[in-house]
Write a structure and sequence with these properties.
- The structure holds two protein chains of two kinds.
- Chain A is built from 21 helices and ten strands.
- By secondary structure, chain A is mainly alpha-helical.
- The N and C termini of chain A lie far apart (92 Å).
- By secondary structure, chain B is α/β, with parallel strands linked by helices.
- Chain B has a single domain, classed as Rossmann fold (3-Layer(aba) Sandwich), CATH 3.40.50.
- In chain B, a hairpin with an 8-residue loop joins β5 and β6.
- In chain B, α3 packs parallel to α4, α4 runs parallel beside α6 and α9 crosses α10.
- The chains are: A mainly alpha, B alpha/beta.
- Chains A and B meet through α9 and α20 of A and α5, α9, α10, β11 and α11 of B.
C-alpha cells in the first residue's frame, strides 16, 4: 500500500475520534434535552463496560448490537476503540497534544506496559462487581463514566453559565429563545475528587501517554485481552525497517520496541501515529492467526515505579480512607439515599451504576443529583433523588431510557407510575396548618397520586394526610413543603422499591344546583 | 447596570402605572370606559366561541387593548397534564384571547406562568405552547428567579413585597385566564389564586398565610380582564387531578374586570358557598372587589 493510504488511515481515525468525542461531550452538556434519546442510546451502546453491564442486566437490542460491534472490530483490528470511540482516550490525546505543544521535543520511549497489574486490576474489578460493587469497574476506573463526570462537573457549569449570561442579556431586549438553565454545582468533596482524578489522568497522559489505558482502564484490559487474538495486528516489517526509531517516539501506548522491531499489540491503542511516522512504510497490519508472542512480563521501569508509588498510592489512600469511614454508616438510619424509579433498590443500583452522570444531565427536573459518599464506598459519586432541588416528574421515564448500564432499568410510563421508591412521612406538629392554623396544602396540591390529600381540621382548615399505599415517593410533597429549615413532610427511602397501589379514579359528581339549567347566580 | 435597575429605568411607564394603580384603578383598562356589564357568564359553547360572545357583550377586546399595547395573557399552566385532564387552562381559549388581542391592535402578546411541574413539560403537554405560538403569541419562560423583580404590595397585610415576572411588569395590559378547579387547601382555584403564577417565591405565601397572601396580591394589580375557564371543571383531587374522572363538563365561562366578583361567580358555578372560600371572604372584606354579585350588572349568554 502507498504511504498516502497510511497517512489517510490516521486522518480517518482522527476525524472519527473527533466526531465521537464531540458527540459524547454533547450528550453530557445537553442540559437543554435536545439530543433524541434514540441517538443517546445508540452512542452509549458503543461504550464497552456500560454495555456489558446493561446486556448482562437488562439486555436491549441496540446495546447488544453496539457491544458486538466493539468486540468484533477489536477481534479484527485490535483496540482501535481506544483511539476512536473512547471519549476519555481522546481527551488524553488532547492532553498529549498539549504536552507536545509545551515541549516540542517531547518523545515517547518504549516501555513495557505493566500488564500483570492491568489484568490484575481488571480481575479485582470483576471480583468486586460479582461481590456487588461497581466501585472499581465503574465509579473509579471506567473511562466513559470518568469522562462524563469530568464534563458534568467542569464543562457543563461553564456552558450553562455562558448560556445564562446570554439569556439574561437577551431577556433585557424581550428575547426569550434562550432561557435560564438551573445550575447545581457538585459538592466540594465530589469536585475535589473529580479534580484530583482529572489532574492525575492529565499528568499520566502528558508524561507517559496512554498509561492509564494500559494500567487501570477496565475497558482497555478487556480489549487488550481480545486484541491478543485479533485477526490483524500491527507489525514491523523487519526487512524494510531502517532502524530510525521514529515509530517508537510517537507511540502514545509506548508499545513499539524499535530495537527488537516488535510491537506489543495488546497494549496498542490503535492511534496509527506509527503508520504515519514510518518513512519506509514498514509498519502495516498483518494477518496473524497465532496468539501474541508477547508473554506477560513482570517488568517495571523506574520512572513508572516512582509514579505509582508517588501518585497512585496516596490517591488510593485519599479515596479509600474517608469512604471506609463514612461508607459504613451511610446506609443505615434515615439518611439512606433514594434511588430513581427503575433502579430496583439501593443494592441493584449501587452495584451496576458506574456514576457516568448521564441521567443527571438528562433529568428534566434536576432531581437526580450526584452524591459523593452517601452510598458508601461502593457507590461513590452515584446519583440520588435530591428533593431539595426538585421532585420526580410523574410522567417522566427519561433516566431509565438514557442509563447506559442498566442501573436504572427502562420503564414505560404506566409501570413507572406504580414504582414506590420511598414513602412520605408527615410531621404534623411542624405543618403550617397545625403550627400556624393557616391554609397551606402545598404538599397535597403537588401530589400526583393523592397519596397526600387533605382532611377537615379545625376552623374549616384542611390538614394533610398520607395514604402510603398510593405514595410513590416522588418527593413532590417534600419539595413543595414551605416549612424551613426542616420540612414537615419528607420521603424516606425504600431500600428495595415496592409497588404502589394504583390511584382509583372516582367519577366526580356534577355540582348542585345542576348547571345544565340556569346560571347559579 | 444591573437587571433590576434596567427594568426600572426602561419600564418607567410601568412604574407610573403602578402609582396609578395604587389609587385603585384598573391596570391597563381605560378608566373612562364604562363597560356595559360588570360580569358576563356564557355557557353551552366551545371555549373559543363562548369567549367571542362574552367579549362582544363587553364591547369587544378594543375596550381593553389599545393599538400598540404589550399584552400578557396569563393562563394556568401549572401542571404536566394533557388538555383533557383540565389541570391547565383550555388551550383553545388561550389562543382565542390572543387572537382578539391582536385584532384589537396589540403589538405583542406574551404568555407566561411560573409552573409547579417542570416548566417545559407543562408548557408543551398542556397544549398551550403550541396553541399560543400558533396564535402569534410569545411564550415566555418563567422558571428562573432571574426573570422576577421585587415589587411592593402596599395594601398587603401578610404580603407586603414579592417578585413579579418582568414580562408582566413590562406589560400595558394584563389578562388573567384561570381555570376553575377544586383545591386541596384553599378549596378552590380561580382568578385570584391564578396570580400565584406571576410571582417567584410562593413558599412564602404558603408558610405565612396563604389565604391572606392571595387576597393581598390581588390589591397589587387588578388584571385588566379576567376570563375564567369552566369548560371542564375539576371537582375533586385538585388542583392537579388524578384522572379525567375528576372532571365535570360544564361548558361555561365567566368574564369580568372584577377579580372578586368573578371568583364569587366561579364558586357558585362550582356549587360552593363563596363565603366558605377563606381568601374570597378576606378579599371581600378588604373591598378588593364586589362579592355581592346579585347587585352587579350581569349578562348571561347561552349558546
Amino acid at each position: 500500500m502507498t504511504r498516502q493510504f497510511w497517512k489517510k488511515i490516521k486522518q480517518v481515525r482522527v476525524v472519527t475520534s473527533l466526531v465521537f468525542f464531540g458527540a459524547f461531550t454533547l450528550l453530557f452538556l445537553d442540559a437543554w434535552h435536545l439530543v433524541p434519546r434514540s441517538i443517546t442510546t445508540a452512542l452509549t451502546s458503543l461504550q464497552l463496560v456500560p454495555s456489558l453491564l446493561k446486556v448482562a442486566m437488562v439486555g436491549g437490542a441496540v446495546t447488544a448490537i453496539g457491544l458486538m460491534f466493539v468486540i468484533i472490530t477489536t477481534l479484527i483490528l485490535g483496540r482501535i476503540y481506544c483511539s476512536t470511540i473512547c471519549p476519555l482516550g481522546i481527551l488524553q490525546d488532547f492532553m498529549i497534544r498539549f504536552a507536545r505543544k509545551l515541549n516540542r521535543r517531547k518523545r515517547f520511549k518504549y516501555s513495557k506496559a505493566p500488564q500483570w497489574l492491568h489484568y490484575s486490576v481488571l480481575a479485582l474489578s470483576v471480583l468486586l462487581l460479582l461481590l456487588g460493587s461497581s466501585m472499581l469497574i465503574g465509579d473509579l476506573l471506567e473511562p466513559f463514566s470518568n469522562f462524563g463526570r469530568i464534563v458534568n462537573a467542569f464543562a457543563l457549569p461553564a456552558v450553562v453559565l455562558s448560556n445564562n449570561t446570554a439569556s439574561d442579556l437577551l431577556a433585557r431586549f424581550g428575547l426569550y429563545f434562550l432561557y435560564t438553565v438551573p445550575l447545581h454545582p457538585e459538592g466540594v468533596g465530589a469536585l475535589s475528587l473529580g479534580l484530583l482524578f482529572f489532574a492525575t489522568i492529565g499528568y499520566m497522559s502528558m508524561s507517559e501517554g496512554r498509561l492509564f489505558c494500559n494500567t487501570f482502564c477496565p475497558a482497555g484490559a478487556i480489549l487488550s485481552l481480545l486484541s491478543r487474538v485479533s485477526l490483524f495486528k500491527l507489525a514491523i516489517n523487519k526487512d524494510s525497517c531502517n532502524d530510525c526509531g521514529a515509530c517508537d517516539k510517537v507511540c502514545k501506548a509506548q508499545c513499539i520496541d524499535s530495537r527488537s522491531k516488535e510491537i506489543d499489540f495488546s497494549a496498542c491503542v490503535g492511534c496509527f501515529n506509527c503508520l504515519r511516522s514510518c518513512p519506509e512504510d514498514a509498519i502495516q497490519y498483518e494477518r496473524r492467526g497465532l496468539p501474541d508472542k508477547h508473554p506477560l512480563r513482570v517488568e517495571f521501569n523506574q520512572g513508572r515505579r516512582d509514579f505509582f508509588r508517588n501518585v497512585t498510592v496516596p490517591t488510593a489512600t485519599l479515596l479509600l480512607a474517608p469512604g471506609l469511614v463514612q461508607g459504613g454508616s451511610a446506609l443505615t438510619g434515615e439518611t439512606k439515599p433514594i434511588t430513581p424509579p427503575g433502579s430496583i433498590g439501593i443494592r441493584h443500583f449501587t452495584s451496576v451504576c458506574t456514576a457516568c452522570h448521564l441521567c443527571v444531565t438528562a433529568c428534566p427536573t434536576g432531581v437526580l443529583q450526584p452524591t459523593f459518599m452517601q452510598y458508601g464506598l461502593s457507590g461513590m459519586f452515584q446519583p440520588k433523588m435530591d428533593y431539595s432541588v426538585n421532585y420526580c416528574n410523574y410522567d417522566c421515564v427519561i433516566c431509565g431510557e438514557v442509563c447506559p448500564t442498566g442501573a436504572i432499568v427502562p420503564l414505560d410510563v404506566p409501570a413507572k407510575k406504580l414504582v414506590q421508591i420511598g414513602k412520605s412521612t408527615f410531621n404534623k406538629d411542624d405543618c403550617v396548618v397545625v403550627s400556624k392554623k393557616k391554609d397551606c396544602a402545598a404538599c397535597s396540591e403537588h401530589c400526583p397520586t393523592k397519596a397526600v390529600h387533605t382532611v377537615p381540621y379545625e376552623n374549616g382548615l384542611f390538614l394533610p394526610e398520607i395514604d402510603n399505599e398510593l405514595c410513590i415517593g416522588c418527593g413532590a410533597c417534600e419539595h413543595a413543603c414551605p416549612v424551613t429549615p426542616k420540612k414537615a413532610i419528607t420521603v424516606v427511602s425504600n431500600q428495595v422499591h415496592l409497588k404502589a397501589k394504583k390511584p382509583k379514579p372516582e367519577k366526580a359528581k356534577a355540582p348542585v344546583p345542576d348547571t345544565t339549567g340556569d346560571f347559579p347566580f | 447596570m444591573d437587571r433590576r435597575a434596567f427594568v426600572k429605568q426602561t419600564l418607567g411607564a410601568s412604574i407610573a402605572f403602578g402609582a396609578y394603580m395604587k389609587a385603585g384603578k384598573v391596570f391597563g383598562a381605560f378608566s373612562d370606559t364604562v363597560l356595559p356589564y360588570d360580569l358576563v357568564a356564557v355557557k353551552g359553547g366551545e371555549p373559543g366561541a363562548m369567549f367571542d360572545q362574552g367579549i362582544n357583550a363587553l364591547g369587544g377586546m378594543k375596550a381593553f387593548v389599545k393599538k400598540g399595547d404589550k399584552v400578557v395573557v396569563k393562563p394556568n399552566i401549572g401542571w404536566d397534564v394533557s388538555p383533557d385532564r383540565a389541570g391547565n387552562t383550555n388551550p383553545q381559549l388561550v389562543a382565542r384571547i390572543i387572537e382578539h388581542c391582536f385584532n384589537a391592535g396589540a403589538k405583542q402578546v406574551s404568555v407566561v406562568d411560573h409552573t409547579c411541574d417542570q416548566w417545559q413539560r407543562c408548557y408543551s403537554n398542556s397544549g398551550i405552547q403550541k396553541a399560543a405560538s400558533e396564535a402569534g403569541a410569545k411564550v415566555v419562560p418563567g422558571a428562573s428567579a432571574s426573570y422576577y423583580h421585587d415589587v411592593k404590595v402596599p395594601h398587603g397585610k401578610s404580603l407586603t413585597s414579592t417578585q413579579e415576572h418582568e414580562v408582566i411588569l413590562d406589560a400595558d395590559v394584563f389578562i388573567n385566564v384561570p381555570i376553575l378547579k377544586n383545591h386541596s387547601g384553599p378549596r378552590l382555584t380561580m382568578a385570584m389564586k391564578n396570580l400565584m403564577g406571576n410571582v417567584w417565591d410562593r413558599g412564602y405565601w404558603h408558610r405565612t398565610d396563604l389565604d391572606q397572601c392571595i387576597a393581598d396580591f390581588a390589591t397589587y394589580r387588578k388584571p385588566a380582564l379576567n376570563v375564567l375557564d369552566a369548560y371542564y371543571v375539576m371537582k375533586q383531587n385538585g388542583p392537579r387531578g388524578i384522572s379525567v374522572g375528576d372532571l365535570v363538563e360544564m361548558k361555561s365561562q365567566v368574564i369580568s374586570t372584577d377579580i372578586v366578583a368573578i371568583d364569587v361567580a366561579g364558586a357558585k358555578l362550582f356549587g360552593m358557598d363563596p363565603s366558605s372560600v377563606r381568601y374570597l371572604k378576606t378579599a371581600a372584606e378588604m373591598k378588593i372587589g364586589r362579592a355581592d354579585i346579585e347587585n352587579l350588572r350581569i349578562k348571561r349568554i347561552s349558546l
